[in-house]
Every structure is written in structure tokens, then in C-alpha cells.
Amino acid sequence: MGPVSAQPAAVLLDLFRLDGKVALVTGASRGLGKGIATALASAGADVVLHASETQPAAAAREIEAATGRRTATLSANLSDREAGDRLIADAIASFGQLDILVNNAGIIRREPAAEHSDENWDEVLEVNLSSVFRLSRAAGRHMLARGQGGKIINIASMLSFQGGITVPGYAAAKGGLVQLTKALANEWAAHRINVNAIAPGYMETDNTAALRADAARYRAITERIPAGTWGTPQDLAGAAIFLASRAADYVHGHVLVVDGGWLSR
Question: Is 0.70 topped by the overall pTM?
Fold first, then answer.
């Protein structure tokens, strides 16, 4: 057998490129969102970064310096029911199109179930689930009208599968997010709009600061992770690029778990 040509491998790797694409990443000022935005830009996408309170200018400057791609920044309070439509419209106005939406923004409220307030429940469901529907609906309308397909990636959680402790609203929202992912995929797959999710394991982010500050719980969780360590935002880079790219064109309604082996334990 003669030498294997390098061309097929080069063509295959090209499927992961995002040149000419525009992505919106919510909750992108730090943590998982910033890591995902950086990954998409490194693969060639121009990226619109969203933050809830102030525009994520520092993250945008870092991404531009590291990747050479264009960025834009937007702020919106996702508990506002009008914010989703405005945010998608502003993202499209930034670069003239929207090809990729990453619904990463989320909040967590820790309180025992017997004491869990309606206010905490409502706020978590509004931001972590209802706003994802509204953003996806607005992005879906744009993608359907353009007729060129698109990618929507929802950031789920280990608590999409497990109940957690003292976070009933968060667990309910993340469980619902998986079902929303499948429901939208069912409707839009025929239009070349891929709707999928990434379920990160235990990650070193602001959301897990309280867990990591509890020495006993931190140790117990770490010991249960087969990989032996908590993940970092960079650990989601490959999964995000894959689901945002042509390499995932036949992947619909899937939840890609990136957890160091936690669920298989």
C-alpha cells in the first residue's frame, strides 16, 4: 500500500473551521462563556459577547488579541422578558448575521428545599430556562428566514440528570433545558438548524465557588470524578467547536457530556 495522502485529513479538519460565521455567547464575560467564546473565535468565528450587567469589554479585548477575530459586546438582563428579542436583534446588527447561538448564561441560588423562596425559584427558572427558549426562538426565526441553517448550543449540567442538594430550581431548570433542546431539534433539524447541548461536569467557575469552599464536599466530589480533577473552561473548547461546526451537521438533540467521567462512575 502506498503512502496515505494528507489531503483527506486536511479536508476533514476543515469541517471544524468556523470562518465566516458569527456567534453569540451569553454570559461570556468570564468562566465557561468566555472560554467558549475564545474557542469559537480561535476556530474562525466573529463573536458577540453578552453579559448581564456591564458589557464584557475586557473579555472581548483578550479574545481579539489572542485570535485576531472581530468581537462585539452587549449587555442585557435575561430575567427581562423583552431582552431575548432585543439581544438577538442587536447581535445580528453587529455583524449582519447570526449563525451560532450559545445559551450559556445562568444563575444558581442555594437554599434548602423547605426554605426555598418563590423569588429564588422564579429567578432561576426565568434566566436558566425561559430566557433560553426566548433567545432560541428569536435566533431560530432568523435562521429559518435566512435558509442557511445554524447551530444552537445550550449549556446543561450534571443536574440535568441528577437532583443535586439545596438547588431545586437550578436542577429543574437544567432538566427542562435538555427537553427543550430535544423539542427544538425535532422541529428545526429538517431546516439544517442543529440544536444540541453540552453538559459540563464539576467546573472551576464562580457558580461552584461555594462548593469548592466547602472542604469536605470538595474532597468528596473530587474523589468521585474518575479523572481526579475538576474541569476548567478550556475543557469545553473542543465540544463547543464541534457542535458549532459542519462536523456536527448530522447531530441533533444530543447532550454531549464533558465531565471527567462523573456520570459513568
Answer: yes
Please list, residue by residue across 60-74, b when 16 or more beta carbons sit within 10 angstroms of its beta carbon and e when fewer do: beebeeebebbbbbb
CB-CB contact of 28 with 34 (8 Å): yes
Where does the chain have alpha helices with state H? Answer: 7-14, 31-42, 57-67, 83-95, 118-125, 131-146, 168-188, 209-213, 215-224, 237-244
Residue closest to 258 by CA, chosen among 245, 250, 243: 243
Indicate the helix (H) or strand (E) that contains 106.
none
- Is residue 170 part of the annotated active site? The answer reads yes
Looking at 170, 202, 218, 250, which residue is catalytic? 170
**Torsion of Cα atoms, 189 then 264 then 31 then 229, to 10°:** -160
Query: Cα separation of 186 and 182, whole Å?
Result: 6
Instruction: Count Cβ neighbours within 10 Å for each residue of 13-36 and write b for 16 or more, e otherwise.
Output: eeebebeebbbbbbbbbebbbbbb
2 and 25 in contact (C-beta within 8 Å)? no
pLDDT at site 6: 54
The domains of the chain, with CATH numbers, are 17-260 (3.40.50.720)
Cell of 63: 479574545
pLDDT tens per residue, range 53-78: 888 899 999 999 999 999 999 999 99
